[in-house]
Write a structure and sequence with these properties.
6 helices
Length: 153
């Protein structure tokens, strides 16, 4: 075997090693992306559960229930609490929408549609519309578009 043949063989082995490395890295990137999506979904579910717990607190539930009937049913302190609690709710929806747009949630799960069904019911309440009119100028255009499309405004 001459040196040219040995060099060509070594070059072939090097090319195969580079190809195997690229395939390995591509699989690792895909696996990490899948893990990131699962983590994002788990974190979203945890945040949803924590919000439900806050909502079920007796005092918060009373403020939300009366506030959804109309903010005139609340004193000044309760209005601030209502705006904070509702703000957290709609910030969550905005985050879910962002996560879906950025590919962190698979569209096949229809997460925005599933959570959206809850928010569509909330938006049927007069106090929710009052809340929305109060905060909509400070929210993302995506959330504004979604709420305007899914409310009676």
């Amino acid at each position: 075997m001459n040196w040219d043949a040995i060099g060509a063989f070594a070059e072939l082995l090097g090319s195969i090693a580079v190809l195997v490395t690229i395939i390995y890295l591509a699989r690792q990137i895909k696996q990490n992306s899948d893990i990131a999506r699962v983590d994002a979904y788990r974190d979203m579910q945890k945040q949803w559960s924590e919000m439900r717990e806050r909502t079920m607190d007796r005092d918060n539930l009373d403020v939300i229930t009366r506030g959804l009937q109309g903010m005139a049913n609340l004193d000044d302190y309760e209005k601030v609490r209502f705006l904070k609690l509702m703000g957290d709710e709609f910030a969550f929806l905005d985050t879910v929408m962002l996560m879906e747009r950025k590919g962190l949630l698979d569209a096949e799960y229809e997460v925005v549609e599933k959570f959206g069904a809850y928010y569509k019911n909330v938006l049927k309440q007069p106090g929710a519309l009052e809340f929305w009119d109060t905060i909509k100028d400070g929210t993302s255009p995506y959330l504004v578009e979604w709420v305007e499309k899914n409310s009676n405004n």
